[in-house]
Write a structure and sequence with these properties.
This protein is an all-alpha fold. It has one domain: MetI-like (MetI-like fold, Orthogonal Bundle), CATH 1.10.3720.10. It contains 16 helices and no strands. Helix 1 runs antiparallel to helix 15, helix 5 packs antiparallel against helix 6 and helix 5 runs antiparallel to helix 12. The longest helix is centred in the middle third of the chain and has 36 residues.
Length: 319
């Protein structure tokens, strides 16, 4: 690995650390300006002002915001997210289980959507401007245009309610076998696949078509190679960097953007955990969940950037 490449990777890592720090500030500020008072929510509407003030002091909510931020950040750097204000549960323990469920859901959605997106992109390029390309493009455009909550409720109505193939509520626990878990998450996996498949497929098609305009592709065609061989052997390997970027961005969405899908299917993941505690005004939980989401998104984007630099020499020498 050259010194220039090491410098570029180090710069990306430093930029990622700065983005995480900026994200932590924004998340803390955003959590502080949430409407409502957690002390009021815990004690109820009949609580006296003195009781609310005492509880706020006990929770540390009467301290200056800067002090509370530095204290929270110090705990996070040590792996301590604190305790939930509403029930006193350890946030780190709760998040680890919920994050595992979200990653389990995202893994199976990615396992289906990524290979399928690349395959459909290759088919679209192979039959460019013919009916398979037009059909795939039309279906992908229609899928992108429909919000995921509409797709989710449509699948619940048709597949779960009418056909009764799978349950409409995707609850999983440790006592379930792998097949039982897969049956339970079938609908959210399908919805997430529909959401990310179209974008990945269209970007894969665009990346390969961009490479197909290169002179060496014309040389390969003049040698008598078949269209499919030209696409798979020459165009696809040279367009892998932008494809990786798109895949990483959509993997980030599978982890970060599952909030709506998890709420629709009552799935016990990070999204449902965040929504539940936002409604309770549980600030430490909101901050912790927001920071986890931001960290996953930034780390996957940073990984995509670094992989792109390693895979594409032109990015190392922009001049």
């Amino acid at each position: 690995m050259s010194s220039h490449l090491i410098l570029l990777v180090t710069q990306r890592l430093a930029l990622g650390a700065l983005l995480l720090l900026a994200s932590s500030i924004l998340i803390f500020v955003g959590a502080q300006i949430l409407p409502g008072d957690v002390a009021q929510a815990v004690l109820g509407q009949s609580a006296t002002p003195e009781a609310i003030a005492n509880l706020r002091a006990e929770m540390g909510l009467d301290q200056p915001a800067v002090y509370r931020y530095l204290q929270w950040l110090s705990g996070v750097l040590q792996g301590d997210f604190g305790s939930a204000l509403t029930n006193g549960a350890d946030i780190g323990t709760s998040i680890s289980k919920r994050l595992g469920n979200t990653l389990f859901l995202a893994f199976w959605a990615a396992l289906i959507s990524v290979p399928l997106a690349v395959l459909l992109g290759l088919i679209a390029v192979r039959f460019r401007n013919r009916w398979p390309d037009r059909l795939i493009s039309a279906l992908s455009l229609a899928t992108i245009s429909v919000p995921e909550f509409v797709i989710g409720y449509l699948f619940i109505f048709v597949v779960a309610v009418k056909l009764r193939w799978v349950p409409s509520v995707s609850m999983i626990n440790d006592s379930m076998s792998l097949m039982q878990k897969l049956q339970s998450i079938a609908l959210p996996v399908v919805v997430l696949t529909f959401v990310v498949l179209a974008h990945m497929m269209r970007m894969t098609r665009a990346a390969i078509l961009n490479v197909m305009e290169s002179p060496y592709i014309e040389t390969a065609e003049l040698k008598g190679l078949s269209k499919f061989a030209v696409v798979t052997r020459h165009a696809l390997p040279n367009s892998i960097a932008p494809i990786i970027n798109v895949v990483m961005l959509n993997l980030a969405y599978l982890v970060v953007g599952v909030v709506v899908v998890e709420v629709i299917f009552v799935y016990p993941g990070m999204g449902q955990y965040l929504v539940d505690h936002v409604s309770k005004r549980d600030i430490p939980v909101v901050q912790a969940a927001g920071l986890i989401f931001a960290s996953v998104y930034i780390l996957l984007n940073m990984a995509a950037d670094i992989i792109g630099i390693i895979a594409n020499p032109r990015l190392r020498h922009p001049k």
